[in-house]
């Protein structure tokens, strides 16, 4: 019983870390795209 609980907690922690890394990467991609759009908008105004 204890081994199952430890396994489940370990699996949940691993999935949580993987999800955080994925969300962080997506956030960086979105931020980069937003920066490119802002730059194009500035250039279009000039």
UniProtKB/TrEMBL annotation:
Residues 1-18 form the signal peptide. Keywords: Cell membrane, Lipoprotein, Membrane, Palmitate, Signal. Belongs to the EcnA/EcnB lipoprotein family. This is Entericidin A/B family lipoprotein.
